[in-house]
Amino acid sequence: MLLFDGDCGFCTVCVGFIERRIRPAAEVLPYQWQDLAGYGVTAERAAHEVLWVRPDGTVSGGARGVAALLRSARGPWRPLGYVLAVPPVSWAAHGLYRLVARNRHKLPGGTAACSIAAAPPRR
C-alpha cells in the first residue's frame, strides 16, 4: 500500500500519474484515512514523506518508498525501482525527494496547505 498526503494538491497530482501510468500492484490511499498507529507510523511522518507499507507491515518512506513502489510495478518501472535503491543513485534520489517535498507547495497542483516543515520527523 502507498500512503500519501491527501490534503496536498501536488501529492494528489502525483498519485494520479502513479495510478494511470505506473500502475503499482498496491492500493494508493491518503494517509488521513488510515489507522497509522496500526502501521507503527505517526501522522507527522506521514505528512513528511510518502509511505510504502509492505504486506508484512514493513514501512519505507520517501525515496525508498518510491523505489519500492516502482519495484511493485511492471514494465520499465520495475528496473528503475531497483536502480533507485543502489548507492550512489539512492543518495541522489533521497536528496531530490527531500528537495521536492520541501517545495511541493510551489509545484503544479501545490497550495500553501502542501507546505511542510523542513526538519525531518523524529522516529
Q: What can you see in these coordinates?
A:
It comes from Actinocorallia herbida. This is Putative DCC family thiol-disulfide oxidoreductase YuxK. One of its GO terms (molecular function) is protein-disulfide reductase activity. Pfam families: DCC1-like. With 123 residues, the protein is of the alpha+beta class. It has one domain. 41% of the residues lie in helices and 10% in strands. It is built from five helices and four strands, in the order E-H-E-H-E-E-H-H-H. The chain has helices at residues 9-22, 43-48, 62-71, 77-83, 89-102, and strands at 2-4, 28-30, 51-53, 59-61. It has a four-stranded mixed β-sheet with strand order 2-1-3-4, with helices on one face. Strand 3 and strand 4 (59-61) form a beta hairpin. Helix 3 (62-71) packs antiparallel against helix 4 (77-83). The radius of gyration is 14 Å and the shape is globular. Mean pLDDT is 88; it is low at 117-123.
Give a quick set of tags describing it.
4-stranded mixed beta sheet, disordered C terminus, 5 helices, alpha+beta, Putative DCC family thiol-disulfide oxidoreductase YuxK, 41% helix, DCC1-like, 123 residues, protein-disulfide reductase activity, 4 strands
Secondary-structure element series:
EHEHEEHHH
Low-confidence stretches are 117-123
Query: Could you estimate the helical fraction of the residues in percent?
Result: 40-55%
Largest sheet: 4 strands, mixed
Structural class: alpha+beta
Q: Which range does the strand content fall in?
A: 5-15%
| Count of individual beta strands | 4
Radius of gyration: 14 Å
What is the overall shape? globular
State the domain count.
1
**Gap between N and C termini, in Å?**
20 Å
Average pLDDT taken over every residue? 88
The strand line-up of the biggest sheet is 2-1-3-4
